[in-house]
Amino acid sequence: MKERVEVMISAEAIEKRLDELADEINRDFHGEPVEVVCVLKGGVVTMVELAKRLTMPVTLNFMEVSSYGNSTESSGHIKILRDLDEEITGKNVLLVEDIIDSGRTLSKLRKLLLQRGPKTFKICTLLDKPDRRVAEVPTEYIGFTIPDAFVVGYGMDYAQRYRNLNYIGEVHFDEN
Ligand code: IMP
Ligand code: MG
After folding, report:
1. What is the pairing mode between strands 2-9 and 120-128?
2. I need a surface site. Which of 13, 34, 62, 164 has the fewest CB within 10 A?
């Protein structure tokens, strides 16, 4: 079975939406420093593109949690594969994700990070796929809300491929 990728959201549309989100974030933080936390690997492209548009003092930090492996279904558990290398206590944290699907990963991660006592904690996701949501995640900044499709590009993968696409593509699994 070979997959086929079709454009769902163009590079231009993503750039424009990131400009808008960054404007909103710049307004909301009133110039206060922000620790931008990326959930690896999927969040990395959005993090970098967003961070370039932020005007307050910004620091970057990374976490990696396990999710899909090579299938398209999220497991009920998350495992911290890589933790932050800085304390977030008393800081403004902006967590950047590629996509919220079931919400399991982010709802667990959110609880874990809130226990560390950040001054503020906000979430920015490039994509929201609400149809399969099983765990609620308060999300302040959403790029695009999309239907229940499996997507790749702009950081997101299928079997570790396609992360480098500058657009969001929908994956079709055709028989042939
Ligand atoms: P959740 O726990 O079901 O919300 O899934 C979280 C993670 O699964 C996301 O951060 C992505 O890394 C990955 N994921 C969810 N949907 C997709 C998709 O359509 N394409 C690629 N990765 C996805
Ligand atoms: Mg992710």
Report:
1. unpaired
2. 164
**Ligand 1, atom nearest to 97 Cα:** 10
pLDDT of residue 122: 98
Residue 37 Cα distances to 43, 110, 148, 155, angstroms? 9, 11, 26, 15
CB 48 within 8 A of CB 160: no
pLDDT digits (tens, 9 = 90+) for 10-30: 999 999 999 999 999 999 999
**Annotation says 101 is catalytic:** yes
| Structure-block tokens of residue 44 | 């990395």
Does the predicted model carry a pTM greater than 0.85? Answer: yes
Q: Span 71-80, mean pLDDT?
A: 64
Instruction: Give every CB contact of residue 140 below 8 A, 6+ residues apart in sequence.
Output: 28, 122, 123, 124
pLDDT tens across 33-63, in order?
999 999 999 999 999 999 999 999 999 999 9
Whole-number Å distance, alpha carbon 87 to ligand 1 midpoint, is 26
- Cα separation of 165 and 119, whole Å? 35
